[in-house]
# Entry
Amino acid sequence: MAKQRPRHTGSTTYTPKRTKIYEEQVAWAARSVQSFADDARISLRITLHDDEAVVEIAEIASDEKSKLTGDIDNYAKSIMDGIVQGGLIANDRQIDILEVWRRGH
# Structure
């Protein structure tokens, strides 16, 4: 399920119910797998199918660290939104494959 935009009611902002339920389901599935150390560098691949999502997660064995500190998905979303606003594509829903790497220098 794609994350829905936050909803606003007066001065209150909240996550839509369907999104919240889906995120809770993902969290329960994640709790059944051994977690990684807080400083581990992670590789994440998500393959979406019509009726399921297959997630592959592994620790990266590398000392190379980026100076970029933001969430990697937020960098990607900003770039995709700019591509849409610039008229290169009509909607970021057109993107079927997205691979984002954060590299050190």
